[in-house]
Write a structure and sequence with these properties.
The complex is a heterodimer of chains A (about 375) and B (about 350).
Chain A (H helix, E strand, L loop, with lengths): L14 E4 L1 E2 L3 H17 L5 H14 L1 E3 L2 E5 L3 H24 L1 H28 L1 E3 L2 E5 L3 H16 L6 H15 E3 L2 E4 L4 H35 L6 H45 L1 E2 L2 E5 L3 H17 L5 H14 L1 E5 L16 H10 L8
Antiparallel strand pairs in A: 1-11, 2-3, 3-4, 4-5, 5-6, 6-7, 7-8, 8-9, 9-10, 10-11
Helix pairs in contact in A: 1-2, 1-10, 2-3, 3-4, 3-11, 4-5, 4-11, 5-6, 6-7, 7-8, 8-9, 9-10
Chain B lengths: L3 E8 L7 E7 L4 E5 L5 E6 L4 E2 L8 E4 L5 E4 L2 H11 L5 H8 L1 H31 L4 H14 L6 E2 L4 H19 L7 E6 L7 E3 L4 E5 H6 L3 H16 L2 H19 L7 H5 L1 H7 L4 H17 L5 H14 L16 H13 L2
Parallel strand pairs in B: 9-11
Antiparallel strand pairs in B: 1-2, 1-7, 2-3, 3-4, 5-6, 6-7, 8-9, 10-11
The chains are: A alpha+beta (about 375), B alpha+beta (about 350).
Chain lengths: ~375, ~350
Amino acid sequence: MDIDQPAPPGQPSLRALPFTFTGRAGEYFRIWFVNVCLTVLTLGIYSAWAKVRTRRYFYRNTLVDGHGFDYHARPITILKGRIIAVVVIGGSYALFFWKPLIGLAVFLGWFLIAPWVLNLASRFNARMTSYRNVRFGFTGSYGSAFLAVCLWPIIGVLPLGLLLPVAMQRKAAYLMRHYRFGVTPFEGAPSIGAFYAASLQGVGFMMLVGIVLFAVTMALVMPAMLGTNLKDPAQMKLALAHTQMISMMVNWVGIVFMVFFIVPFFRAKTRNAIFAALTLGPHRFTSRMSGLGYGGLVFSNFLLSVLTLGLLYPWAQIRQARYVAERTALHAATDLSEFHADDESPGSVAASELAALEGLAIGIGT
Amino acid sequence: MTARHIRGWLFEGGRSAAEPVVLVVDAFGHVAVTGAGGVTVRTFAWRDAQVDDRIGDTERRLVLSDGAAIEVGDNDAVDALERSFGRGKGRFIAALERRWVAALAAIALTILAAWAVVQYAVPAAADLAATRVPPPLAANLDVQVLAGLKQFDSHDTALPQERRDAVGRLLDHLVADGVGVTPWHYRLVFVDMPRVGANAFALPGGTILVTDQLVKLAKNDDQIAAVMAHEIGHVEARHGLRSLLRGAGLGALTLFIFGDVTSLSHVFVSMPLVLINSAYSRDFESEADARGITYLRRARIPPEALVEMLELLERDCGARCAEAPGWLSNHPLMPERLAALRARIAAP
């Protein structure tokens, strides 16, 4: 659907404002190296400063209509949050380890406070982000967060996982509806059909890869098996060890492919659906990421980063940010001058760092 | 110094409306913000504005006392004004980030520092922490490891009860007469491990794991006692705890640095199994050998039994040696180790 067609009478016409990314690999290389070096030299303390500088570099280089985003968290705040998060998570795992029963209770507790952590973390990250001198915000209630991130995943898994796409759609819808830009709320709910389509394609890919990897395993294992005298226990042992090693390696290839190809593939598809439904006042959004293209990009980024022992990692990050920005657009109904800030409380940095460590995905596709 | 002109965008506090402006800065650091038609819309002293750090060549903001912000792209001009009138913070890092030499030096320094941390700082901290772990707490770990043993193709022992009791009495004798007063509570566990073969492990909390295959391989009880004396050496010197905490320390450090990437769970979940999988360092092995000899002597068991047992084990493992953990993992160094043992036994 083309959004930028002439508007029907009575509605403002929309102006397409593509996102651009102006970061350069050479420049970011130096920032990254200094970050890594100082982080190691300070035994991790500088990591908080590094995080802020990295975010600012990426946010400020992401432009819409000639203005960049910005990130405002103070490094010392991040550091405190990070320490709290490490102590809390480390403590609960240690407890699980020493006293499994108490540990189990702690994990149940985690489940119950997860919605609260998600809300505080989303709020912190939103409040620390600005565009045109106006901060973003997030207002979610415990109840609806509990439905979206605790209850729906369980409902989704129960009937053979058939409702999982709905669960993911519920979470996306929860997040998009509770973000705000200044006092103006974001609205919209992505189509469930798009989540099902993306899931089906993802599962299809996984099965395809599974078949290919199985064939590869067989091709590698069979020759050794055929040459084995099954009656000789020593030879049998050796063949078994050989098989075990190969299947372990193939397993790893499968996991890497899953994490670095299928997950980004799914993200790209669902992000398109989320942005198609997203509105901010009279303004709309589009995301035109290609599932295969983005999956391939993340996968090749991973391979290149690993093969160069991390040396190409900064370049890969820049490449990814540029890809995402260039396929995103804001369709503005005005000159964007009408927004103004509110004075909501800033959320919790500890929650944000907890969420980051626990891998809770927050944010709408950014 | 003549007045400087810098272009930018002015935003009133908490408003998204952008007004193109030119900042005119005089020789004293007074700034006149001029809008369309050269009209001065506000004035401020450069010193009073909060100037964001420079990061690469990104646009940065000057935040005024009333919350208004000015986005400026001319970083070099802002840097020059900061040098003349500003409070001068955050300049050092930005200067480092702009120089390739600094970046390359940073790589070299990073590698050096990472090596020093991994080689010295983490082991030292872990060793210190290991001396503070109370033995009953460590015994909890043993329970976890034993529960995880199933993955290693281990079966219930097939040794007859009287044989097990005999080996148990050997251990009691070793501990009572050889080790003496100890905070550790020793416990003997037999397992049948056909794939691992003849082997023994010391768990951090004082559990000594002996395979059926080892008991069958030994020619006499002294040789079994010798293996157990070596394992007791590992426990008394807290080798298990030290390796465990070294691994955990490295994991925690990695987590702290790359906090955004990984999940903590891997570090802790994999901990107990790492114990059996990874070999002790060479230093730990020779320390355990030395302690073992002392305990054997005090218990009036000939320490030569340890040498005999090692030789038996080496001959037994054959092709399996390369992949076997624990006792035999330092196989290529076995001649060296035996020589060191013989020298120690020969010494009074």
